[in-house]
Design goal:
The protein is mainly beta. Among the domains are: about 100 residues, no CATH class; about 100 residues, no CATH class; about 120 residues, Immunoglobulin-like, CATH 2.60.40; about 110 residues, Immunoglobulin-like, CATH 2.60.40; about 90 residues, Immunoglobulin-like (Sandwich), CATH 2.60.40; about 90 residues, Immunoglobulin-like; about 70 residues, Immunoglobulin-like (Sandwich), CATH 2.60.40; about 110 residues, Immunoglobulin-like. The chain is built from nine helices and 94 strands. The strands form 22 sheets. Strands 4, 87, 89, 90, 92, 93 and 94 form a seven-stranded mixed beta sheet that branches. Strand 35 and strand 36 form a beta hairpin. The longest helix has 24 residues. About 20% of the residues are buried. One of its GO terms (biological process) is protein import into nucleus. GO terms for molecular function: structural constituent of nuclear pore.
């Protein structure tokens, strides 16, 4: 379709590109239009297919211009819709915010979706799309929030920024003041003086340090040349070891290659005087100096000697290997070997258990070593001496000991960080270098040393000393009670202890308890902390030493232990029979025990009764060497006592042989309680019973007594034939402790035996009780509806308790309480009554004064409207009286419940113009009444719906609250305005008839009452007058003639009211109109001087009524100008005579004569070097002449500057000097010998002055020369 002819009115043709050639990699070219129009090809039917680069809608369906037209139509439609929304906006923030968000989304959807259609010319980049969207968003915000758009001010600012602020000149033409004020042709020319430089060459001008080693095989020595182009150089090298010197010759080709290398590093110009740095590569250490330099003219170039350039081997340092295991308290004894040119500095790092410290050794050098590098100022020390001696620069090897006390056990690492020689050559050892040593320790230089510092072991004995010997059975062994430790915290785990022991047998111990000379020594190794050495032979054992695999330890006291073998235990017995005192029959044996051994003893014996298959084994413990045991069986019969074995403190279970005793026993009568508890509990007013077992020959008589509070009551039971009887106490009415004691028993032989057995009875002091406790001092509680409450119980007795209660006489309920102050959880209102209680063992009683608890529900909150505020109550809706817009209106809301209250209401507004979204608000009241302030800001119908109510007790419940409505109508206030606000109704004093008419417009419901205010210029108090009964919305106000005064009077609208009783009080900012009576106008110059310069402004003050007509004469031409303000000014564009001849204002149309003359003078000018830029080259010490030519009226004063010459980049030079001169003639010549650019920056003649833009001439800083 590219060849399709188009009408001239059609859109421009769509730009086409050869997409196929683009895809095939062909370059894009602009085809020239041939002089002959191409022939229109015949249309052929073809099939079109959309390619990825074509529009989304193919062009054969809708061509590109039409697609662009559709896009523009959609955009314009959106703009019309946006303008409609703007016209319907009310003055509310909610509506503006909603519309702003709406149009942000619509504009964003349109702008971001449009590029996806790929319409030609509308395929914007993402950045362009974002910028367009930002512009639309700013416009949407300004429209929807009614932000004024300063269009006129914007165009004016744009015009001033592009073309400047034009002013009216004296020839009545608009002129740009900047073209007059900043006339570059007034100051022309400058003179540039350049002092030719002197050529030089310097080796190593920055005095860098150089070194070579295995990683840096060569170094590049810098040679800086200035204002010369050398063709040959000679460099002298002095060997540091042999002091032999050699001369290195640099040919022209080598120097040329050095130039190329330097140009690759830094871009240099073509000027010879520009400094340039060349680099010469050397590989050998030595002392280098520049011996000779020849330039293109075969002349020697000045060589500036600053210091020798010394290339030395790079410094290095290693850690000499040493043992890696040390003991706490020893010295580190680590040596560093430093090699380099003294004085050297080495920095190392010490890491102790991951705590890092760094230290530095300075001034490392051999003894009696002298070097210029030791001086305080190293640069001064390297100045060229008369005799070259490089012995001080030879590398030296120095060992530096690191002797530190190893006071902390753990892992110590000494590692090298950095080494530096006397020239400042620095080698830094990185973590990679240290890791290389760990991987290849044999090949790499040792850069760090790891030392493991071990704790020293300690040992002592625990529980055995010569005074407290260790006793062991003969033939048995024992563990030596050692206690292992260390100088740290606790013993050293995982490390064997080597213990040195000294042993002397009992016969080898001296009288003083010491070892004899024949004492034996041995070593025991303990591999486990719980392991102890095994000893068996009796004697004295002493620990003489302790050590681990790495460290020798310390032996603490006690260190000696005495081992003894005591004799085995033995037993000898003797006995005698025990007889009954009454019957005289034997009742048992009394056996005496004589013992040998180590107390305490345990004697095991067995008791057998003839005719019985059972026996009893007993153990008698004897703490000394003698003991006695009484064997008194309870039942009659023949008994055999066998003594089986004996044990003492050392020997256990040693058998006894043939130790037996026999006896026929007839025991005396006895009685005891069966299964007697330690103390039996009993309830008050109840009896207690016990079972008693009787022994002996019956029948029996049993006496017992009951003891309580110091009183004894005796009881007796006779003719008892049973072996088991039950005795019962009377009812126990007093609480406390009782004792039931068996007193005596009498058998068949009438032998009476005293009894010792007794039983304890604890009687409860009171019965269990139950009662309700108090909540807040009452047994009556108000709770929230549906909320659970715990009723407190007061229980007396032993836990647990079983309580039975009822609710409002319903079915009784039982609960189990574990605590004396337990609680009953309830959730229903009513009366709760306790019925019965029982504790763990006894029934109880209910406290009648506290057996009930009453629960009541707290009432829910209520809301109502005060009847005095509701004009027409209608069920749950209330109608308030109508009010005027802006009047105060409120309604009292009454509450019932528990303050504070919170009520939520929704404010629905139906405005007379526009719409407002509903607002949800909240009232919080601390008392029973709150005031709701009605919204009267805008006219309309208001509906306040109270939909949620809460108080201190209850949250809102829709089930228990019915919404209330309060409705009110707000009427708009009337308004009034001048039809032409700000207009001045003026006339001459002779023509003032007071019949001027001021039109006004009113809004509201007529009739209107209107009040005016007239304030005369020069009077303090204004006058007021009223116009009542205005029945129309448009009215012409006639000011009475008596109200008008000579001069200006301001008429303001103060108050308006309508038939609804609404009124509006207008403030002082309301637009007003003026009534003025003026005399003839006048014109007065604002400057007293009659001489002005081109570019200045001629200003006059006007009095009268604007606009004014000013008549003036400029250089013989009569002109007329208009002035709309109280001032008149014109720009002095060119020299001439300006004369004002008259002035006329708009009030009187009378012309006042005037004669104000101003003489306009031209600006002075100056030419340096005839107005051209002149270059002058001079040698150091020479001088040249500078010519200044002036234009204007003498005398002339001018200021010129000397600045540094412009560099290669074109950057303006820095001002070096500023001078001020005076001349009575039109030309002046001065001498100059300093380099720089000389130019004039300010000129002044008798009347006018001019300075270049941006130049500040400081009179104090400038030097003034009187000619």
């Amino acid at each position: 379709m590219d060849g399709t002819p188009r009408l001239r009115s059609a859109f421009p043709s769509t730009p086409q590109s050869d997409r196929r050639s683009r895809r095939l990699g062909g370059s894009e070219r602009i085809q020239r239009v041939s002089e002959r129009l191409p022939e229109i090809p015949a249309l052929q039917a073809s099939t079109y297919s959309s390619t990825p680069g074509e529009p989304w809608v193919p062009e054969h369906v809708v061509d590109a211009p039409t697609q662009r037209l559709f896009a523009v139509v959609v955009w314009v439609g959106l703009g019309i819709w946006k303008a409609y929304d703007f016209s319907t906006i009310q003055d509310t923030e909610e509506q503006g915010l909603w519309l702003f968000m709406k149009w942000i989304m619509l504009d964003g959807f349109y702008l971001f979706a449009l590029p996806s259609f790929q319409i030609p010319w509308l395929e914007w980049s993402p950045f362009t799309t974002v910028m367009l969207f930002s512009a639309h968003a700013v416009m949407d915000g300004m429209l929807m929030f009614r932000i004024p758009i300063p269009i006129a001010a914007g165009f004016a600012a744009l015009g001033r920024s592009l073309w400047g602020a034009y002013e009216m000149a004296v020839n009545e033409k608009n002129v740009n003041p900047r073209t007059i004020a900043f006339n570059e042709s007034l100051i022309l020319g400058r003179q540039i003086i350049h002092i030719l430089p002197e050529g030089s060459a310097i080796l190593n001008p920055e005095r860098h340090a150089f070194c070579v080693d295995s990683t840096r095989s060569d170094v590049r020595l810098p040679i800086m040349i200035n204002a010369t182009n050398p063709i040959s150089m000679e460099i002298m090298r002095i060997d540091l070891e042999t002091q032999h010197n050699e001369t290195l010759h640099l040919s022209k080709s080598q120097i040329k290659a050095m130039h190329k290398d330097a140009s690759r590093l830094v871009s240099y110009g073509q000027q010879l005087h520009e400094p340039k740095t060349l680099y010469y590569t050397v590989k050998k250490p030595g002392l280098y100096l520049l011996a000779k330099v020849v330039d293109e003219s075969n002349l020697d170039v000045t060589r500036k000697h600053t210091a020798h350039t010394v290339v030395v081997p790079c410094p290095r340092a290693i850690v000499l290997p040493t043992t890696s295991d040390r003991c706490k308290g020893e010295l580190s004894n680590v040596d560093l070997e430093v090699t380099g040119t003294p004085p050297m500095r080495v920095k190392y790092r010490k890491v102790v258990n991951q705590q890092t410290q760094e230290a530095t050794f300075e001034s490392i050098q051999p003894e009696d070593f002298s070097s210029p590098l030791v001086n305080a100022d190293r640069q001064l020390a390297l100045t060229v001496p008369n005799r070259v001696d490089s012995a001080w620069a030879k590398p030296q090897k120095v060992q530096v000991p690191l002797t530190e006390g190893l006071a902390t056990a753990g892992r110590w690492v000494f590692s090298l960080v950095e080494v530096e020689d006397g020239f400042g050559n620095k080698v830094t050892y990185t973590d990679r270098d240290h890791e290389k040593q760990d991987r290849h320790s044999a090949k790499s230089a040792p850069l760090h040393q790891l030392i493991t510092v071990h704790e020293r072991p300690t040992i002592n004995l625990h529980g055995c000393t010569p005074q407290q010997p260790l006793k062991v059975a003969r033939g048995s062994s024992a563990r030596l009670p050692i206690q292992l430790g260390s100088t740290g915290r606790g013993a050293i785990a995982g490390t064997p202890y080597h213990i040195d022991l000294l042993f002397s047998p009992n016969d080898g111990i001296s009288a003083t308890g010491e070892h004899s000379r024949s004492a034996l020594s041995r070593r025991e190794t303990v591999k486990d902390l719980n392991q102890k050495p095994l000893i068996q032979e009796a004697g004295l054992y002493t620990i003489t030493g302790v050590s681990t695999n790495h460290c020798q330890g310390e032996v603490l006291e006690p260190a000696s232990c005495l081992l003894q073998n005591p004799p085995e235990p033995e037993l000898v017995i003797s006995h005698e029979e025990i007889f009954d005192k009454c019957a005289g029959s034997p009742i048992g044996l009394r056996v005496d025990l004589d013992l040998v051994g180590t107390p305490p003893f345990n004697v095991h014996y067995r008791i057998r009764q003839k005719g019985s298959s059972h026996h009893t084994d007993e153990v008698e413990k004897v703490n000394g060497l003698r003991g006695q045991v009484e064997l008194t069986p309870r039942t009659a019969g023949e008994y055999q006592y066998d003594f089986l074995e004996i044990s003492d403190a050392v020997y256990k279970n040693r058998p006894l042989k043939d130790l037996k005793l026999t006896q026929s026993v007839k025991p005396a009568a006895s009685a005891d309680f069966v299964s007697k508890p330690e103390k039996r509990l009993a309830c008050i007013d109840e009896a207690a019973s016990f079972d008693v077992r009787l022994q002996g020959e019956g029948p029996f008589s049993l006496e017992y007594e009951l003891v309580h509070n110091g009183k004894r009551v005796k009881y007796a039971l006779n003719d008892l034939t049973e072996r088991l009887v039950k005795i019962e106490t009377p009812q126990l009415h007093d609480g406390g402790d009782y004792t039931l004691a068996l007193v005596s028993i009498t058998d068949k032989m009438q032998c009476k035996e005293f009894l010792k057995d007794e039983a304890k009875i604890a009687v409860r002091h009171q019965k269990p009780k139950a009662a309700f406790g108090q909540l807040e001092g009452h047994r009556k509680l108000n709770i929230l509806e549906g909320k659970q409450v715990q009723l407190p119980l007061r229980l007396v007795g032993e836990a647990p308790w079983t309580i039975t209660y009822t609710h409002d006489g319903q079915q009784p309920q039982a609960i189990r309480a574990q605590q004396p102050n337990d609680k009953i959880t309830v959730a229903e209102a009513g009366t709760y009554q306790l019925l019965d209680v029982r504790d763990s063992s006894c029934p109880g009683q209910i406290d009648e004064s506290a057996q009930t608890f009453e629960i009541q529900w707290i009432p829910r909150p209520e809301l109502r409207i005060s009847p005095s505020d509701a004009a027409e109550p209608q069920g749950h809706s209330f109608v308030k009286a109508d009010v005027c817009e802006g009047d105060e209106a409120s309604v009292e809301v009454l509450f019932k419940g528990s303050p504070p209250y919170s009520v939520q209401y929704v404010e629905h507004v139906k405005l007379e113009h526009g719409a407002v979204a509903p607002k949800t608000k909240e009232i919080r009241a601390a008392l029973q009444v709150a005031s709701l302030r009605m919204n009267t800001a805008q006219a309309g119908a208001y509906d306040y719906k109270f939909n949620e109510l809460e108080d201190a007790n209850y949250k809102h419940s829709a089930k228990h609250f019915t919404p209330l409505h309060v409705r009110q109508r707000v009427h708009a206030r009337p308004s009034v305005a001048f039809v032409n606000p700000g207009k001045t109704y003026s006339y001459c004093s002779v023509e003032s008839d007071g019949e001027e008419v001021i039109p006004i417009t009113l809004h509201g419901t007529p009739p209107f009452d209107l009040e005016f205010e007239i304030k005369h210029h020069g009077t303090g108090k204004p006058e007021t007058f009223t116009l009542p009964g205005i029945t129309t919305h448009s009215h012409d106000v006639r000011i009475p003639h008596s109200r008008v005064h000579l001069g200006k009077s301001a008429i303001s609208l103060r108050r308006v009211s309508d038939s609804r009783g609404c009124s509006r009080l207008l403030d002082s900012t309301t637009p007003r109109v003026q009534i003025a009576v003026f005399d003839a106008p006048t014109i007065t110059p604002l400057e007293s001087s009659e001489d002005i310069c081109v570019g200045d402004r001629i200003k006059f003050a006007l009095s009268g009524v604007a606009p004014y007509t000013i008549f003036y004469d400029f250089s013989g031409q009569i002109r007329k100008a208009q002035a709309t303000g109280t001032t008149f000014q014109r720009l002095a564009e060119k020299p001439g005579t300006f004369t004002v001849t008259g002035v006329q204002d708009s009030a009187s149309q009378c012309r006042a004569s005037a004669n104000v003359v101003r003489q306009i003078h031209g600006m002075p000018s100056v030419r340096v070097s005839h107005g051209r830029e002149k270059y002058v080259d001079i040698h150091e010490g020479g001088e040249t002449e500078i010519l200044f030519e002036f234009g204007g009226v003498p005398p002339f004063e001018f200021t010129f500057t000397r600045s540094s010459n412009t560099d290669k980049g074109g950057k303006k030079g820095v001002v070096l000097d500023m001078r001020h001169l005076r001349s009575e003639e039109h030309s002046l010549r001065i001498k100059a010998s300093e380099e720089g650019t000389y130019e004039v920056v300010a000129i002044k003649d008798r009347y006018c002055s001019y300075a270049k833009p941006g130049v500040q001439v400081d009179g104090k800083a400038a030097k003034k020369l009187l000619m």
